[in-house]
Design brief:
heterodimer, A: alpha+beta, 36% helix, globular, B: 666 residues, alpha+beta, 7-stranded mixed beta sheet, 6-stranded mixed beta sheet, 30 strands, 21% strand
Chain lengths: 91, 666
């Protein structure tokens, strides 16, 4: 048994990415892109946030993410810094 | 005046210093309610100071100790410093230790078992204090007037340990056992020169205890990674039916081969007056250099702990509250009528503040949406609407007050004291919780909604544990004030602005120092605690309120904390103690009065991987000092921005190192 939690979860995440969650992928580049976006989202918002969908326009990535049933629409031009442009929170 | 002095005492009686990875430090609170400025410029601190140094490293929070002279009746005469007319010199004596690796394994307070030790193969069969290879002990250190300092207190651990066997189910760095059912042979390399803290003197020769840099490491090859093996091997409670504290659900409190640099221990002082007379907090001291013996009523204690990342927020039950629970005769307002702003309002304000650091209390979690403490939530007790009711002692508002009281959770048992369910004290196995008076259903719909000393209810349900006190409850003193208020037996009072120590009458300063050192702390749930372990609830371990007992060895109380602390600091990421270690943090749009949140524990680790529960136990050892502070937003006039009566808190001074993957992993 492999106890490297990170390897275990990365493998799980890759499988999830390929299966998609309401999002289809044409090839391995798209899958790799989604993994990179998910990783960046988790680093920026926290590991409990998940990627629902995303789209790209030039260098800008727009994504819909979710946590505790709350949804944000977020954008990034470098896949490191993200800005929340829409939130479902009502406070 | 010297003839009037019959004794001296150090205050605070129990001090609290908080670690940081910077070499810079600031002095912690010395008066109740006062949030101290961390020094420096252009920062978010109360006076514009910064919690980080020029290299973005987190400053340490030191504890200052002061000497007060008392007369024959026990009345305070005044503080003695090197600037006092009477005083020739002061000589401080400090003995701290880290005994965590030598102590009993932590398996929850209710499951304490004195037959289970940490690092069980090293010096087996001995009491913790006898397991000298596992104790970091710098010995007695002194610092005296005229000594430049600092005195750095260092010690070694795992000395003379060469080889051993550890469970194959543990997670090892760079090594995966072929057969996890077999033990793994490891080699040990002693860790030497571990700094537990530094002693310095201020300009008046008061003692400054500066804590350690917060390091921790594993000495074995292969290295044991911080993890919880029971999540992977025979969940939920690990192999061997959960009998082994190195691999069961409590494994991350007892990681073998690891050390950290926290400590606890005793502080004493001997004061030589200009007339040649000598006063000491130790007994049998005739000359300044005499060793003497410990007098627990006069000497003090130090505990070092992780940083408090939300310095303006206070937990609803602090260690100060626990001290008064154990020593009700020391509670200063025992015979006074309940005063809303002094006795009740702070509890409500503390609860509302959780709405900026907790997923549950903020209302972002689905189960608590619109029923929590966020500014627009039903539980914002500081909203003008509620406050109008709460400050009205008339019958008209009684039903509202009664409704609030009815929501309060009480500790299990007829006396309403946590300690009663955990007798006898360690190192004996507690059995009293099995008594009928503690049998009850633990209700989730009462307040506070924070986990208790028995641990998370869902975890207990999974494991078949039927413990009392699975949720935190207020103390009987706190509950009595709320009841008096609910019944209408109260005066409203006024919200007092906290006063600095030098603004308080001399007679009030010792108590202010005692209370303020422990006020910004966690007084439960103790699993095992984050600054001071659950042993604070036992009167038996103390000489009196705020004074650790005579027969307590330096390091013996702190030894009950997680070893190392980092894994527990990560693990307590939901409804434990978000005022010290936020669970979530918010951004706030002042114009639209809206907010969004992120997890507090986020960013990239040293390998460029996101911080997350995938590897949180291990990642916290890297990330803790880089995480953000949660502080009020200030308006242009310096006041705190409020939303519907609640102070708005946002994240500040997060180290930029977390926001980018390290260069090597790009």
């Amino acid at each position: 048994m492999n106890f490297t939690r990170r390897e275990f979860v990365i493998g799980f995440a890759a499988t999830t990415a390929l299966m998609g969650s309401g999002f289809s992928f044409a090839g391995t580049n798209d899958a790799a892109s989604k993994v990179a976006i998910e990783k960046s989202i988790k680093a920026n918002f926290g590991g409990g946030f998940s990627l629902i969908s995303y789209s790209k326009s030039g260098s800008v990535t727009q994504a819909k993410i979710e946590n505790f049933g709350n949804q944000y629409t977020v954008t990034s031009s470098n896949l490191i810094d993200w800005k929340i442009i829409q939130s479902s929170l009502s406070n | 005046m010297s003839s009037k002095i019959k004794s001296i005492r150090i205050h605070p009686g129990i001090g609290m210093a908080r670690m940081g990875d910077s070499d810079e430090f600031f002095i912690g609170p010395e008066a109740p309610g006062v949030v101290v400025d961390p020094g420096g410029n252009n920062g978010p601190g109360p006076k514009g100071g910064s919690y980080r140094d020029g290299k973005s490293k987190l400053k340490r929070q030191a504890q200052r100790y002061r000497v007060y002279a008392y007369d024959a009746e026990g009345k305070v005469i005044g503080e003695l410093t090197s600037k006092s007319d009477l005083v020739k010199s002061l000589r401080w004596r400090v003995h701290v230790r880290n005994m965590k690796a030598a102590n009993y394994a932590f398996q929850g307070a209710y499951l304490f078992d004195p037959t289970q030790l940490r690092n069980p193969s090293i010096q087996p069969g001995k009491k913790p204090i006898e397991r000298t290879q596992l104790i970091i002990d710098p010995g007695v250190q002194t610092i005296a007037s005229g000594q430049a300092g600092p005195v750095v207190m260092k010690g070694d651990i795992f000395t003379g340990v060469e080889k051993g066997f550890l469970p194959g189910q543990l997670r090892y760095e760079g090594f995966t056992p072929k057969d996890i059912s077999k033990d793994v042979e490891v080699t040990y390399k002693p860790a030497k020169g571990i700094e537990l803290g530094q002693l310095r003197l201020d300009a008046q020769d008061r003692l400054l205890f500066i804590p350690s840099p917060g390091k921790g490491a594993c000495v074995t090859t292969p290295k044991v990674a911080l993890s919880n093996p029971s999540e992977f091997v025979n969940p939920p409670n690990g192999p061997e039916n959960g009998k082994n504290p190195l691999t069961n659900q409590f494994a991350y409190f007892n990681v073998p081969g690891w050390w950290d640099d926290t400590c606890g221990g005793e502080i004493d002082v001997t004061v030589t007056l200009k007339d040649g007379s000598v006063l000491s907090t130790r007994d049998n001291v005739k000359k300044a250099m005499d060793e003497g013996t410990r007098n627990p009523q006069a000497g003090a204690w130090i505990i070092t702990a992780p940083p408090k990342f939300s310095p303006y927020m206070y937990h609803v039950v602090s260690i100060t509250d626990r001290v008064y629970e154990a020593f009700p005769e020391a509670y200063p307002y025992a015979k006074q009528k309940t005063n809303f702003y002094r006795d009740v309002y702070p509890i409500f304000a503390n609860a509302v503040n959780y709405g900026w650091v907790s997923a549950e209390a903020s209302g972002i979690a689905k189960a608590h949406r619109n029923a929590a403490h966020g500014p627009r939530q039903a539980g914002n007790l500081l909203s003008p609407m509620y406050m109008a009711f709460f400050t009205d002692p008339s019958e008209k508002s009684k039903s509202m007050r009664q409704m609030v009281y009815a929501l309060m959770r009480h500790p299990a048992g007829k006396n309403g004291r946590l300690v009663d369910s955990l007798m006898p004290p360690p190192p004996q196995k507690p059995t009293s919780w099995k008594n009928d008076e503690f049998k009850r259903v633990e209700l989730e719909n009462l307040m506070p909604l924070l986990w208790g000393t028995a641990g998370k209810p869902k975890q207990n349900e999974l494991l078949g544990n039927h413990f009392p006190n699975q949720f935190l409850a207020l103390t009987a003193i706190q509950l009595n004030h709320i009841k008096e208020w609910a019944d209408g037996n109260f005066e409203v009072g006024v919200l007092q602005k906290p006063l600095d120590l030098d603004k308080l009458p001399v007679k009030d300063q010792p108590r202010a120092l005692d209370a303020s050192a422990l006020e910004p702390t966690i007084g439960g749930g103790f699993h095992p605690g984050i600054e001071f372990p659950y042993l604070i609830i036992y009167r038996e371990f103390f000489a009196e309120a705020f004074r650790v007992g005579k027969n307590i060895e330096p390091g013996a109380l702190a030894a009950y904390m997680s070893s190392p602390w980092h894994g527990d600091f990560w693990s307590c990421n939901s409804a434990w103690w978000p005022t010290q270690r936020p669970d979530v943090v918010f951004e706030y749009d002042q114009k639209n009065q809206t907010r969004t949140y992120r997890e507090w524990f986020r960013g990239y680790d040293a390998d460029g991987e996101p911080l997350s529960d995938t590897d949180g136990f291990n990642q916290m050892a890297y990330a803790w000092s880089k995480l953000g502070m949660v502080l009020p937003i200030k308006a242009k006039d310096g006041s705190f921005v409020k939303d519907n009566g609640a102070i708005v808190f946002t994240e500040h001074e997060r180290s930029p190192d977390l926001n980018r993957p390290p260069a090597k992993s790009k």
